[in-house]
Model the fold of this input.
Amino acid sequence: MKNIIPFTKELEFNTKVSEIKSISLERDFKLENESIEGNLYITGEYKSHEVSVNVIPFSFKIPFTIEVPKNIKEDTLSLEISDFAYDTLEDNKIKVHVELELDFEEQEEEEPELLESPQEEMDRKEITDLFEEVENIKEIIAPQKEDEIKIPSEEETTSEEENIPLDKAIIEKEQVEEEYTNYHIHILKEGENLETICNMYNVTGSFLAEYNDINNLTVGEKILIPSEDE
Done:
């Protein structure tokens, strides 16, 4: 990012200035938080009278401050003199005009890391625990895998009362796969009881008792309610 910074300053000499014989400009600077602090040094020689053969040295120090962004990359900062001129005013004054070219790059601001509030952390932990409970229940009541279904051999089909025919085994396998695979997790609210939960999900108390401890239900209690696939 380049910027031209102009300066104008009147300089007063101790004696009359008849002629400026030589003049030069130098600068120094340093970065201080959100500003550049520096100085301009104007030096040279002049004659106080036109007919004089003597020259008088002069030196002026001009401090300056330039406001800059806080996130400057310091190693990219440069401040160079781009222009310098002067005008003679009264007998013992001149006006100097200086332009400084400021160049720098800004650092990219990092987005602040958002911290969870205590309530958000508790909610996230409760949801994680809830999913773990569901996964554990799935393992308990999940249907048998295909390779776990026993298909009877010809010898085992000799007694229809003790063995299952192949066609029946396939039908029962399909029925097993159609067992409960969806689950509702209901959190008990103020004013609710076992009867309202049964009516809400169209189930019986004995059905809920198979998956939950319904004897001591309290507000905030999580109730698991398996449901058939639609």
